[in-house]
Design a protein that fits this description.
Order of helices and strands: EHEHEHEHEHEHEHEEHE
CATH architecture of the largest domain: 3-Layer(aba) Sandwich
Number of domains: 2
Strand content: 15-25%
Distance between the termini: 46 Å
Shape: globular
Strand order of the largest sheet: 2-1-3-4-5-6
Helix content: 25-40%
Structural class: alpha/beta
Number of strands: 10
CATH superfamily of the largest domain: Flavodoxin domain
CATH class of the largest domain: Alpha Beta
Radius of gyration: 19 Å
Length: 292
C-alpha cells in the first residue's frame, strides 16, 4: 500500500548529523507528494507530537547512536508519547559512525507499545562528532569540503529510501540475529559505563566566560549545565551529545582533564554543513555574540 498524506519526522540530534538527515528526508518525501516536516524533540512536547501523529499516514523517528544505544533523552521522550489507537507505519532511522549492529531495530518493542509498525529501518553513516583528546582513536573530520562527498552519498540513500516509503515497500537494515548480537558488544559496555563516565566532565574556570556567554547551558538538551560561582558546571544527567565540548568558544570544557584546544590541531566538529547551529534545534534558542 502506497503511503500518502502527512508524514511528520521527530528526531534528536546532538551536533547536527541527525538534523541533516531529518531535513533531507522531509525534503525528499515532500518532493514525492507527502506532507513531511521534521521536528526536533527538544522543541515539541510528546502531547503536541501525538496530535500530529494521530492525523498522519506515517511517522519518522530518528536519533544518533551512542555505543549502539539511543540517547536517554530520546527514549524518555518516546516513552512519554501517548500510544496510538490506530497502528501507524513507522520509519526508524539512526546516524552512526560506521557500524551500530542493529540500528534502531532494538527499539521495536517500544515502538510497538506506542502503536507503531516498524516498516522501514535505516542507518546512515555520518561524520564523527567525537573529538575528545581522551579518545584519539576516533578519527573525526571537521573540514566541510572533505565531508561534502559523504553527504552526497547519503543523499542518494535518502532518495532510495524515500521511494520505498512512498511505494509502501518494507525495508529494514540489519534486522537479523547476527546484527542484534553484535550490537550488544557495544551496547552492553556502554550502558555499564554510561553513568560512571559522566563524572569526567570539568570546566577551566579561568577560560570559562560564565554568564557573559552561557551558551553551553542553553544548548544542553537535558539542562545538565548550570552556572556556579560564575563558571559552568555539569550535573549528572549528561547524554554525551557533545554540544558543550564542541561549541565552547574558549575551549573551557574538558573531558578527563583534556580540552581540544592544543591536543588536536583542527576545530572540533560543529555539524555537517555550515548553516547548522544547535540553537536551531534546542529548546533555548537565544543566541549571543559568542555563537560560532
Amino acid at each position: 500500500m502506497k503511503v500518502k498524506g502527512s508524514f511528520p519526522i521527530f528526531y534528536f540530534s546532538g551536533t547536527g548529523n541527525t538534523w541533516w538527515v531529518s531535513q533531507r528526508l522531509a525534503e525528499k518525501l515532500g518532493e514525492r507528494g507527502l506532507q513531511a516536516r521534521a521536528y526536533s524533540i527538544e522543541q515539541i512536547e510528546p502531547q503536541a507530537a501525538d496530535e500530529l501523529i494521530s492525523a498522519a499516514q506515517g511517522v519518522g523517528l530518528g536519533f544518533p547512536t551512542y555505543g549502539s544505544d539511543a540517547p536517554r533523552n530520546f527514549t524518555a521522550w518516546l516513552k512519554a508519547l501517548p500510544a496510538q489507537e490506530q497502528k501507524k507505519p513507522l520509519l526508524g532511522f539512526i546516524t552512526q559512525l560506521g557500524w551500530s549492529g542493529d540500528g534502531c531495530n532494538f527499539l521495536e518493542g517500544l515502538f510497538r507499545e506506542k502503536g507503531f509498525d516498524l516498516k522501514w529501518a535505516a542507518e546512515f553513516n555520518m561524520p564523527d562528532s567525537i573529538c575528545l583528546p581522551a579518545f584519539p582513536f576516533f578519527p573525526y573530520q571537521s573540514d566541510l569540503e572533505l565531508i561534502a562527498p559523504m553527504l552526497k552519498e547519503r543523499e542518494k540513500e535518502i532518495d532510495a529510501l524515500s521511494d520505498r516509503i512512498v511505494k509502501g515497500e518494507d525495508w529494514r537494515q540489519h534486522n537479523d540475529l547476527f546484527s542484534r548480537a553484535s550490537a550488544w558488544l557495544q551496547r552492553g559496555p556502554f550502558r555499564l559505563w554510561h553513568d560512571w563516565g559522566r563524572k569526567f566532565w570539568s570546566v577551566d574556570s579561568e577560560k570559562c566566560l560564565g554568564e557573559h556567554c552561557g551558551r553551553c547551558a542553553r544548548i544542553c538538551p537535558v539542562g545538565n549545565i548550570h552556572m556556579e560561582g560564575g563558571t559552568a558546571a555539569h550535573a549528572d544527567a549528561c547524554v554525551y551529545c557533545m554540544r558543550c565540548f564542541n561549541y565552547c568558544p574558549t575551549y573551557a570544557i574538558h573531558y578527563m582533564g583534556k580540552s581540544n584546544e592544543k591536543l588536536i590541531q583542527k576545530p572540533p566538529y560543529r555539524g555537517p554543513v555550515r548553516e547548522f547551529k544547535p540553537e536551531l534545534i534546542c529548546k533555548n534558542s537565544k543566541t549571543t555574540k559568542f555563537e560560532n
